[in-house]
Amino acid sequence: MDHTRHIGIFYAKNYSISLIGAGGIGAITAITLAKMGVGELHIFDGDTVEEVNLATQYHRLSDVGKSKVKALAQSVTAFSNLNPVIHPLRVEGNTGTLPRSDVYISAVDSIASRKEIWEQIALTDVTSLDYAPWYLDARMGAEYFQIYIVNLSSSGWYQEALFRQNDSDIPDEPCTSKATIYTGCIAAGHIGAAVRRIITGQQRCGILTHDIYKDSLSFFEI
């Protein structure tokens, strides 16, 4: 794939990314990262594509019944020349060490899942590496997006915030008002931009919040 049109902005070929979740945020994010030219992409998800996913997730009609990671890998390859490494499983506390990556992205739909993912991310021994990986915890509602942007060299603030949170603290929405495809696309744009800033050494730790309904965007730096 010819990356001429963005090569003056960033060069992603040397970057490896682990994406956990292949649904509303994860599917379009995987395609975005592939088109950005990342060198290696791992995708984790243990779910299957269901018909109810099609209107709000970047999966095809023909993907119904397929493993989400297998279906998404086919789409990524069709949209780019990248062949993702797929892991058809749910990342849990006992999953084991995740692949060495420059960026880890959580695109799951519960606080409980995020806590289990963080257990694995936190196993990364940054003192043994010649770089400090980043972790992007992406969260989405129907018309609301938030991303915690964490560098593993100083992640105590994130861990403290995460373990104060519970799924019971999140207001439950009617099933007909839980997701929109455009919020997923906006989320992928924010994640892609964060990866760009990581690559160019411009990213700061903090929390980015985008309320699409209120047309409000803010960044709280940690």
Describe the structure.
This protein has 222 residues and is an alpha/beta fold. 27% of the residues lie in helices and 20% in strands. It is built from five helices and eight strands, in the order βαβαββαββααββ. It has helices at residues 26-36, 68-79, 111-121, 156-162, 181-199; strands at residues 16-20, 40-44, 85-87, 103-106, 134-141, 144-151, 206-211, 216-221. It has an eight-stranded mixed beta sheet, sandwiched between helices. A hairpin with a 2-residue loop joins strand 5 (134-141) and strand 6 (144-151). Helix 1 (26-36) packs parallel to helix 2 (68-79) and helix 1 runs parallel beside helix 5. The longest helix has 19 residues, at 181-199. The relative contact order is 0.16. The model has no long low-confidence stretch (mean pLDDT 93).
